[in-house]
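Researcher: Go.
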Amino acid sequence: MPRIIPSPARLSRHFKSPLLPPTLLRSQLHPHLPAQRPSSIRSISTSPHPPPTPRKLPWQSTLLTLLTISAAAYTLRPTIPEHNDAPPTSTPVPGAPGIHGPTTDNEDHPIEQIPTGTSKVPFFPRKIYLPSTPAPSNATSSASLPAGLGAAAETEEYILLGQGVRKVSFLRIQVYVVGLYVAKSDLAALQERMIHAVASTETASTLVSSEKADLKARLLDAEGSQEIWAQVLRQGGIRSAMRITPVRDTNMGHMRDGFVRMVNAGAGREGCDERTDVGFREAVQGLKSVLGGASQVGTGRVLLLGRGGEGGLSVWAERGGKVEAGAAPEKGSQMLYLGGVRDERIARWVWMGYLAGAKVATEGARESVVNGVLDLVERPIGTVETQVI
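Model: Structure:
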């Protein structure tokens, strides 16, 4: 009797399974037969719809959107040249800001304005004026100085040695512009001390190229800068000032906290403990008192820290008048005296916070001051004051 093999369709209905390919069905029904090679014919889908596209995860869509926006912003960014706010006639000599340029104080020849590199406070005056005799530290009031640039009879002229913008966080957010000014009549003393810090002979009156390179390296070095500036500032006799102008609104308390951190860092380097040193503790409290309160220091306003010949600190702040970002203050604004601290360590450690150590408040300002110092030491001692006139 002939052997009857059921059809694949019937077997499929019997076992309630989908229709099997002939090759797999043959291997199941006849396991003793050799396996056949699968057909090389590709299966073609007859479905009317294309296969579904894999769905993007939410983070992938967000990342793609951010990358697209960043690329568009970079492509459409405006091209801003460096010091865009500075007119060509006011650009200082590279490497010597505040040393060269016009110095007359009349309407025909106004004081030169040095570009800062930020549009909020685009310029710093090449020179300012402070009282010739500092007010006592316990004075409650002092003759106000005009916030403008005009000279007065009982004031001393200060020359800009260097300036820079303080930036914070990894986003490099601009906070304020700070400039170091030195009394014009004390430039020769600063020049002499810087020359003798690296000169090979005690009688040297200027520095040669190799000595200038050595001085620059030491002033930019963490330990070398601390050694030189500590020696220069401790000796006294050199009057100077820090001119600070915020590029965004802040308050006096915020500025005070930054100066106190500089003072504490200097005290830590020299082993000074506020708990055991009564004089130092009182000096810190005096600094907090002078800069206390929550008074606003608006954009474009000026805060002046002066250091007298004996190292005492005097503080002025601009009040009154309307100040627009990047504009000169109105005539109604005044520099009001806030108070002072006699202890020379306070001002010295604040100055060191900008000029010395591994990490300074603004590296740009330190480099600018170093360039100004190098311009001083390449001339014979005592000639700087006459050459800047």
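Model: The chain has eleven helices and twelve strands.
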